[in-house]
Amino acid sequence: MTVHAGSLTKTASAPEVNTARRSLGSRIAGVVSGGAVRVLLLLVGLFWLVPTIGLLLSSLRSSEDMNGSGWWKVFSAPSQLTVDNYQKLLENSDITGSLLNTVLITVPATLLVVVIGSLAGYAFAWMEFPGRDWWFLGVVGLLVVPVQVALIPIAELFGKIGLFGSVAGVVLFHVGYGLPFAVFLLRNFFAEIPRELLEAARLDGAGELRLFARVVMPLGGPAIASLGIFQFLWVWNDMLVALVFSDSGSQPITVALQTQVRQFGNNIDVLAPGAFISMVIPLAVFFAFQRQFVSGVMAGAVK
Q1: Of 221, 201, 200, 219, which Cα lies nearest the Cα of 209?
Q2: Phi/psi of residue 252, each to 5°?
Q3: Element (H, E) at 187
């Protein structure tokens, strides 16, 4: 009897222990979701922005001031701030031309990947054709191919067809390398669209192209926006591909800044504003479309 009583006592005490553990977990969750953690995350975000702020302030100081003290000196001597560096930047044809080349490379490479990837993703998700699954497996297999493997063969190919050293050659390489991920991402997203919705549109007389434009594209907006942001940031910040496939007339801003550092190590008054412009544009694009980016990421996580 004593043993049974002890067993009952232990059995009865188990829920109390679980309750205590749950209450402890609830307290931890409450602390994590409290205001202190929010303040901590805000501080982390501000700390992440320190290099950008420092580069901005450096770009607004003369080369003498930058060589004599750190960028934080402007808080005690705000008279150091000037826009002369940006005037010199606009007079530097290499930097301004490379910035234009960056736009001419990034915008077409992003749009082509989004458009072609959307069409291919819809085809793999909802259209029947011979070998569809095998073709999709081939696309997935291309995701593991490093970009370094394709540099020399593609460079030889572009040299034979006259695209090496041109903006078009850099764009085509980025499009070809970005499509496998785009197709994989959008195919998986489009496949989660309810079949009944597509069948209803077909019963109303919608063809495949109209169905894609009127139904699939609006529903896939978050995923497409996420893909566009990823591709834009990747192409804008790329330097490896541009170093191989571009020349002096087609080089983007990343290569131009690297060349300026190598040739003129003391022209920090031109490099600082050029680097800040190169950094702030992708940041502006990300913050402008961050809501769509988060929606696409969350939608993919839920599905």
Answers
A1: 201
A2: -80, -175
A3: helix 167-190
